[in-house]
Amino acid sequence: MIVVAGESLIDLVPQHPEDPLGPLAPRLGGGPYNTAVALGRLGARAAFCSRVSTDGFGEALLGGLRAAGVDTSLVQRGPEPTTLAVATLAPDGSAGYGFYADGTADRLFALPPQLPPAATALALGTCSLVLEPGASAYEALLRRESGRGLLTLLDPNIRPPLIPDPDAYRARFRDWLPYVSVLKLSQEDAQWLGGTPEEWLAAGPRAVVLTRGAGGLTAYTGDGAEHSVPAERVAVVDTIGAGDTVNAALLHHFPDHTALTSANWPKALRYAARAAALTCTREGAQPPTAEDLRTRP
């Protein structure tokens, strides 16, 4: 079982990006949430670990998880509202976000006493590792489960408006690396954080995956190897959820430490590039199913 821990929220996506006062459509979202849904759609055994509101948006978020076949037994519930993220779309389909996260349910996540015995991997990232008090609970989960032998994937997915002290966050990020098996981050995240794949590898991860949008994906591994694949060319509607789909595709190939070998990276990266490309052809975070990938020409 692959456990994804972190926030779920509602993306408010502009229907007419050129009109700042145009209608906004609510879409299920949040980096970890999208990753869990993508895993379920790809056919992986996945569970979501978070705190979700009992409001209408929270019920819809749980419904999306269940529809994807994701185990929700680790989800905590609370009466606080659901976090909202207002998206802005650039002409190339890339998205920026403004967040309404004060006093929301996912910020009050508490460390669970244990994960299921079947758990082999844990994925974390995005807002959940920034917003306290939940951030400290997610960090404790990362340290505990890494020590227990689970494969861990970290996707920082930097959202600068949520980070009041960038230097303190960068120091905290470096402190996480000894507990991380796979570090996946975008080129923009890498530039914001500072450092190089070689430096991050030296701090602990067995692999670093760098996504470059239309430039493709590259994995740097602890044995000194470098594996790159191009992005698939598609008509981009928006890029919401593409990076989260990469996370899921990688975890689908590397559900535990035994699969994390250099020989497996080319196939895993091609699969991730293909899955992310399909996500980009759809409005909002709509990861593909395993059948979508099989039937795509």
Chain-wise SSE layout:
Layout: E1 2-5, E2 9-14, E3 24-29, H1 31-42, E4 46-49, E5 51-53, H2 56-67, E6 76-78, E7 84-89, E8 95-100, E9 121-125, H3 134-147, E10 151-155, H4 166-176, E11 182-186, H5 187-193, H6 197-202, E12 207-211, E13 217-221, E14 226-229, H7 242-253, H8 265-280, H9 290-295
Parallel strand pairs: 1-4, 1-9, 2-7, 5-6, 9-10, 10-11, 11-12
Antiparallel strand pairs: 2-3, 7-8, 12-13, 13-14
Helix pairs in contact: 1-7, 7-8
Helical percent range?
25-40%
The biggest sheet amounts to: 8 strands, mixed
Distance between the termini: 30 Å
Our estimate of the beta-strand percent is: 15-25%
Number of helices: 9
- Subunit organisation of the chains: single chain
Order of helices and strands: EEEHEEHEEEEHEHEHHEEEHHH
User: What structural class do helix, strand and pairing data support?
Assistant: alpha/beta
Low-confidence stretches: none
Strand order of the largest sheet: 4-1-9-10-11-12-13-14
Q: What is the overall silhouette?
A: globular
Number of strands: 14
Mean pLDDT, to the nearest integer, reads 92
| Radius of gyration, whole Å | 18 Å
Describe, in plain words, how this protein is organized in 3D:
The chain has 297 residues and is an alpha/beta fold. It is built from 9 helices and 14 strands. The strands form 3 sheets. Strands 4-1-9-10-11-12-13-14 form an 8-stranded mixed beta sheet, sandwiched between helices. A 4-stranded mixed beta sheet has the order 3-2-7-8. It has a two-stranded parallel sheet with strand order 5-6. Strand 13 (217-221) and strand 14 (226-229) form a beta hairpin. Helix 7 runs antiparallel to helix 8. The protein starts with a strand and ends with a helix. 45% of the residues are buried.
